[in-house]
Design a protein that fits this description.
alpha/beta; two-stranded antiparallel ribbon; Bact_response_regulator; 7 strands
């Protein structure tokens, strides 16, 4: 079933103020904060959003529906989003627009090498940037007619979504300190911290990533992150 066909009736054609009206965007993202940002961007743009938080859930969705746009986070709890991008690009019929997203500086190269149409660097908060990344890669018949109003709005996700991400990391760290798990934590926290402008947390995530890549002891870095995460979870009690 093609989601874009279901919602592309005449009364759902794109307009200058809602240029993504009629499109369904599947976002594969494990961060609640980043996903909330995507939800607000889709809402402002007129697009319908579907969400998955891991590769397994995304693949299950794609077995049933074909969205208009696929936005894939590269670092997911059960594997790399690059693998899903490669699968989506090779599928027939192909999703109209496939984009990768990451807070990692090397994410763009990996995304494009996998065959994606483009890349969104985190944090994704600019409405104009989000809309242009999709519209510039859509077929001409799926774009709004006439001049389009440039909406240079910056969205602000609910801070409680960030607190949910901290709870997620705490749960993951409580389960295991295996290298694979710590690599995931470093990647996940790095992206979330940069999205909210939390420099101490971003530095800690970078320190853990460096220790893992260099083969250095990681206990001190993992403990530092656990302490910072706990501090931020405590802030939720005060909200």
């Amino acid at each position: 079933m093609d989601d874009s066909d279901l919602f592309a009736a005449a009364h759902r054609q794109p307009t200058s103020r809602r240029p993504l009206l009629g499109l369904t965007i599947l976002v594969i993202e494990d961060s609640r904060y980043a996903c909330e940002a995507m939800r607000l961007l889709c809402l402002r743009s007129g697009a319908r959003i579907r969400r998955a938080d891991c590769l397994k859930s995304a693949r299950r969705h794609l077995q049933v529906y074909r969205p208009s746009v696929l936005i894939v986070d590269l670092g997911l709890p059960d594997g790399s989003g690059v693998d899903l991008i490669e699968e989506a690009v090779a599928a027939s019929p192909r999703v109209s627009v496939v984009l990768g997203t990451s807070g990692d500086d090397t994410g763009q190269d990996a995304t494009l090498a996998a065959g994606a149409d483009g890349f969104l660097a985190k944090p994704v908060t600019s409405l104009a940037t989000f809309q242009e990344a999709i519209l510039s890669r859509l077929p001409a018949d799926r774009q709004p007619m006439g001049p389009r109003e440039l909406q240079d709005e910056v969205i602000h996700p609910d801070r409680l979504a960030f607190q949910d991400d901290m709870a997620h990391v705490a749960d993951v760290l409580n389960d295991s300190h295996e290298e694979k798990i710590l690599n995931y934590v470093a990647q996940f926290l790095g992206g979330v911290a940069r999205s909210v402008g939390d420099n101490p947390l971003a530095d800690a995530a970078s320190g853990l990533a460096h220790a893992l890549s260099s083969g250095s002891p990681v206990n001190a870095e993992a403990a530092r992150i656990a302490g910072l995460v706990q501090e931020r979870m405590n802030q939720r009690l005060a909200i």
